[in-house]
Amino acid sequence: MKVTSIELTHHHVPFTPHADSHLKYWLPHWQITQICRLEFDNGITGWGETIPNYTWSKVPDDVQDRIIGEPAARLMWDDSLGAGVQMALFDAVAKALKVPVYALLGRKIRDWCPISWWNMDMPPEGWAEECRQAVEAGYTSAKLKARPWFDLHAAIRAVKQVVPEGFHLDLDYNATLGNAANAVQHLKQLEQYEEVAIVESPIPQSDVAGNRQIRDRINRPVAMHFGQPPVMTTMKEDVTDGFVLCTGAASMMAQATACNDANKPFWLQLVGTGLTTAWAAHLGAVLPQAKWPAITCMNIWENQLLQTPHQVQGGFYRVPNGEGLGVSPNADTLKRTAVDYTTLDPPRHVYRYIRSSGEVTVYACSKQELHQVYPKDALPISEPGSRLDVQEDDGSEAFDRMYKSALDAPIKERKRT
User: Fold this and answer.
1) Which residue has better confidence, 416 or 38?
2) Could you count the other beta carbons within 10 Å of the beta carbon of residue 23?
3) At the N or C end, where does the chain have fewer CB atoms within 10 A?
């Protein structure tokens, strides 16, 4: 069974309206997905997906030279071929053997896999709306980007108003709390909320002593991305309760084995629409420690690109039992969403950090850069009444002057009285 052709197409899949009102400023390029279609000499077709502006491994430029004429079974464990190509290879080999993909990965131990809603940092009303939608869609947890420039107490209280008892929040700080002194004080205060379930990467993961201090002093599980610090250091110092795994099939099996040996749970973070979510289900079906809800982010897009979309029930979704990935792309949707561009740029904008005192700091950096800039500026951690608002370019000369000035350095506006 050898590869005879590869077709890579890009598709613009819009975000849902509420997600787009926030994500368009930070991750508009996630609206572009790349679909891989492989043909084989036995007539089988394999399908896969890559989010080219995020995924753990992009499809390399020389992929055609590397795979055409080669046996699929020899290729499928090569993580360097990219997410979409690897998925398509597993899909095709499983179809040839008339088994689900999970049969190629190990022994199936669960029929339903836990999955979580996902979105970014938002003001309280934004988190509440996201969690309301999550409950309506059958989810029982949401992994959200927690950031110190928002009043997180107000955000969690807003969420509590719209979710049932037992709904959980997993808070991802992406190291924005800066140090253990900040993190312990802040996270201890959040322990009053039963909804807060897991805390991810509160400070830089390289700070082994700081992370150990956090884990020793807070009463919530801590999650860290696998690999930093090196796994042997992580295990020896016992700085985390569990892990985030986001990698290719070969690396995934090795990392999952290490987690299993140490009895450490993890969540699969494999971002994409319907095809990627199916791939995550097959992995989750065979990996014993894939007990924390998977993050595929499929909820942020208006369409899963599948003939039959995944359904979430009680915070779980069913592992497909059909041959291959067990799902099929919707040909009409693929045709409608196909585009000849590979990225999208955010509209020009600034961020306005507004403190309860009325003082304002204007930033023209990206949200990703703000992760470093905000802690460096030693600004407050989740100050009551604080928030971060977006001001989009209105075409005025005043905005242009402000934007260019803020590019040089954050602008401190005087308190308005």
Assistant:
1) 38
2) 22
3) C
